[in-house]
Amino acid sequence: METNKKDLVAIGWREWVSFPELGIETIKAKIDTGARTSALHASNIRISKRTNEVTFTIHPAQRHRNPVINATAELVEERLIKSSNGETTQRPVIKTKLKIGKKSYFIELTLLNRDLMGFRLLLGRCALKKRFLVDSGESFLMGEKSSTKKSSTKKPSTKKPSTKKPSTKK
C-alpha cells in the first residue's frame, strides 16, 4: 500500500520532540534525511549483557549540562553505523516511543556521544518514512517548545476597556 503524499504532514528541518519512555519532555531534533538511522546524544553508556539493557545519561538541552536524565532501555542490538565523515562505529540500538506533534510511535535510536555536534538528536529517514514530508526552508512546524511558547505568545486581554476618565488630581 502506497502512502499518498497529500496525506503526509509537513515538518521543518528542526522540530521539538519528546521521548516519554526515556523521561525526555522536550528535545530539539534535526531532521536529517541524509541519515538512515536516528541518533541520540548519550554519555555514560553501559550495556548489560546479563539483563540485555542499556543505561545511559542524557543532557537534552544544547550547550547546557542540565537537566540530566538517567535512562534505561532494552538493547535491540549493537549495529555498525557509518557517520557522515565516513567513520564506522558500533553503537547500541534501542527502541522507544517518539512523540512529534500529535503523532506518537516507536522508532529505533542509536546512542552515541554527540558533544561536539550542534544537535543532541538526529531523526533519520527510517523514523520519518511514510509519516512526514520535510520542508527544508521551515522550522518548528509542529509547534514551539512549550516554555518558549508561553514567553513569546501573549494572550488577548479579557478585561473590558475602562470607561473611567483618568484622575486629574495632583
Your description of this structure?
It is built from two helices and eleven strands, in the order E-E-E-E-E-E-E-E-E-E-H-E-H. By secondary structure, the protein is mainly beta. The protein has a single domain, classed as Acid Proteases (Cathepsin D, subunit A, domain 1, Beta Barrel), CATH 2.40.70. It is globular, with a radius of gyration of 21 Å. Residues 147-170 have low confidence and may be disordered.
Brief summary of the model shown:
The chain is mainly beta.
Name of the CATH homologous superfamily: Acid Proteases
Low-confidence stretches at least 5 residues in length (pLDDT < 50)? Answer: 147-170
User: What fraction of the residues are assigned to beta strands by DSSP?
Assistant: over 45%
Biggest sheet layout: 9 strands, mixed
Per CATH, which architecture?
Beta Barrel
End-to-end separation in angstroms reads 78 Å
